[in-house]
Amino acid sequence: MKNCLWLFVLLAGLAQAQTYTIQTVPNTKLIDNSYVSNPNNLLSEKTVAQINQQLAVLEKQTSAQVAVVLLSSIGDANDFDFAQGLFRLWGIGKSGNDNGLLILYVEDQHIVRIHTGYGLEGILPDATCKRIEMQFMVPHFRNGDTDAGMLAGLNEVIHIISNPQYASEVNANESPGRSAIEWFALIFMIGWAIIFSVVFLINLSMDHFKKAGSKEILSASLSVGQWLLLVLMVPIGLAYLLSLANSWILLLVVLYVYLDLLVVDKYKRVIACAHEALGKESLYKIQHFMKVQGVVWSEWALIFPIPFAFIGGRYKKIIQELPTYPRLCQKCNQKMSLQSADQNNFLTDKQQFEAKIESATYYIWQCKGCASTLIERNPSNKNYFERCMKCGVMAFQSTLKTIRLASQKQTGLQLKVGTCKYCNYTEEQELILPKLQKHGKNYNSDRTSDDSGSSWSSSSGSDSGGSWGWWRFRGRWEPAAGW
Ligand SMILES: [Zn+2]
Ligand SMILES: [Zn+2]
Known about the structure:
The chain is α+β, with helices and mostly antiparallel strands. The protein has 14 helices and 13 strands. The radius of gyration is 43 Å and the shape is elongated. The site of one zinc ion has 8 residues, from loops. Residues 388, 390-391, 393, 420, 422-423, 425 line the site of one zinc ion.
């Protein structure tokens, strides 16, 4: 160390009248751990000692590194280039945040320049540096008082850097930008995994329906493998990669665009699933499936308005067009065409009757390839027809007559008279209404039921005359809300 000092003094002596280049300025930080490079003794020893003490405290408190360089001459070199070159060569400031600052004083050019690293530009922009130079330093330099000018300028710089308000910006050790976005990415990943696991479970129970009379399930969901890859791995991977890029905006934009794509993909899957089910499942069930999915869509549309601006209206139209969307032949997989004329050639008497009284509508599809036909029956309880117990045709219609009102002392009695319009089968049924209770529910009031009773298989009405049978019966008899 002593040898180094001697060497420095020797070099300093030799350099007295020297024109300095970036390479020949003594890097005193390496030589004797001094913040001040003063080879021409332009500052007094006392001032150098004072500056060293102040800058050591500053570095300890904020991790910011400040170097002070005073030279008699840099020849014709540009002061900005010189300061920047020296700044880079010495690597002033901690590498994590580049929070260094260099004050260059050149005697023969009458120039002082405060050069900041990237990490300090925010709190010490060029304009501020210029102001410090002109306001605090140059007046003293004009009077020939280099020590006072340098101390005044440094005081101002130290005052700004050590302002607690700027602590996180200055401090290199914690690298705040990076860690904040990494936290965000971590929380995002955990939140994402939880939310989309729940969404996946809901999807599993919602996004499919069983084909009529088949074990096959038609599903609009991704398979478990696809789901793990597309919904979990890719977004989490993207979040991680983008956290390295250290930009919130980029992270959010990329993930948002990716989600938009997933939403559009889901939309296409739902439609494909519905189209695949046509001709295999009842039209009512397919439409119901799409409507339920549509409710989910409208919620998603709040978060992803851009894709929905394009697909929202189309979705409704697709539901409306389902009845006439070409079915695929189950034998040869070709498109079938709808037969509008001469429907009766394809239908049985019973089917024709149902079509006539509009208790069911029939679509007859014929394959263009193999000429096989598909008869699609879609029940409608527009006119409140029920299935006849005797002939099975949906042509049974009933009227209800009240014989005796229920009171608190007595049960009520109603008579239901039903006739089949197809086979004239007639049925009378006495319905006993339970006594009214003093407090609580009025059992005479109407109840509604969700049972749509739309297909043959589900219309398993009970014949027992008790009150339990009555409620079951009412549930089936009333037109369901969906129709
Ligand atoms: Zn065919
Ligand atoms: Zn009948």
